Amino acid sequence: MVQRQISVAIIGYGNIGRGVYNAIANNETNNDMFVNGIITRRPGALDLPSDIPVFDATKPSCDWDKSLYADVAILCGGSKNDLPRQGPYWANFFNTVDSFDTHANIPEYFRRMDGVAKSKGNVAIISAGWDPGTFSLERVLADAFIPGSKRYTFWGKGVSQGHSDAVRQVEGVADARQYTIPVEAALSSVRGGENPELTTRQKHTRLVYVVAKPGADREKITKDIVTMPNYFADYDTTVKFITAAQMKRDHSQYPHGGFVLATGNTSPANKALIEYRCQWGSNPEATANILVACARAGYRMKQEGKTGAFTMLDIPPSYYGRRSETELLQFFM
């Protein structure tokens, strides 16, 4: 059990950063954490209680390093440009939790974070969220429970934070939302036990809504998006240009969700299907709540003397929450 409140620093205050703040502020059941400081590139734009220190991320570290204490720092930047640089930097100073979600680059990012965290005696929980994160757990469990199973992951329909952020980095883009959409025929085939061999392109399509900057080359924007490796190059991607007013009216929410399925046999005569589904009204708030749970787990691991990088696969499930062993045995078993 956590014996005192855990102090948390929030690094970055976009959609996920605000979600983390609200997750901690609204967590009346646990009440085991508090925000001790926020570091952001836009300190003047925050509307927060005056007792929470806010630091300018663009200024030298001396502005915060002598006055900001935190048991855990939750890193809320994007995976394309922010976290590869920020993760190893902040692991020098704090125990950290982040949501790095570029699947192909996770092994290399893990190695980098592990080296820095171990050298500084810190814990760094990486790639936490619902995918990677909770979906990763489901894939590992399905692989263990149905040996030899075929595993499938479908995302959507919903807004991908990481992919939307990647599009916003494209030259000429003022704002963007990216929707991932499962191919229904593929999902039905898996549920029907057909065990299809599906390419990336056969499982999902991607729909991108873009607000272009005045005078931007829309043809170049479209080409830069649909050819982007690790994000869009392997998918049938549609790019639609809309106005800022349309974006605000029709795409202000960030819903998402998806499915993990595993199919196989428990014996030659008996088929097995495991399906896990999550549905989130707000993708950034979902990620934020999972990051907060992982911050609690990271604090416990540090108290046990652990150091280095970890993923959600390495953490005992009981560490994510604040329930006692008695409560877990009585109400969750």
How would you characterize the overall build of this protein?
- There is one protein chain.
- The chain is an alpha/beta fold.
- It folds into two domains: 6-130 and 284-331, NAD(P)-binding Rossmann-like Domain (Rossmann fold); 134-281, 2-Layer Sandwich (Dihydrodipicolinate Reductase, domain 2).
- It has eleven helices and 14 strands.
- It has helices at residues 15-25, 83-90, 106-120, 134-145, 161-168, 184-191, 200-203, 218-226, 244-250, 283-303, 325-331, and strands spanning 6-11, 33-40, 54-56, 72-75, 95-97, 123-125, 150-155, 158-159, 173-182, 204-212, 236-241, 256-267, 270-280, 308-310.
- The strands form three sheets. It has a seven-stranded parallel β-sheet, with helices on both faces. It has a four-stranded mixed β-sheet with strand order 8-9-10-11.
- Strand 4, helix 2 and strand 5 form a beta-alpha-beta unit.
- The chain is globular and about 60 Å long.
- The relative contact order is 0.16.
- The mean pLDDT is 93.
Topology of this protein?
Layout: E1 6-11, H1 15-25, E2 33-40, E3 54-56, E4 72-75, H2 83-90, E5 95-97, H3 106-120, E6 123-125, H4 134-145, E7 150-155, E8 158-159, H5 161-168, E9 173-182, H6 184-191, H7 200-203, E10 204-212, H8 218-226, E11 236-241, H9 244-250, E12 256-267, E13 270-280, H10 283-303, E14 308-310, H11 325-331
Parallel strand pairs: 1-2, 1-4, 2-3, 4-5, 5-6, 6-14, 10-11
Antiparallel strand pairs: 7-12, 8-9, 9-10, 12-13
Helix pairs in contact: 1-10, 2-3
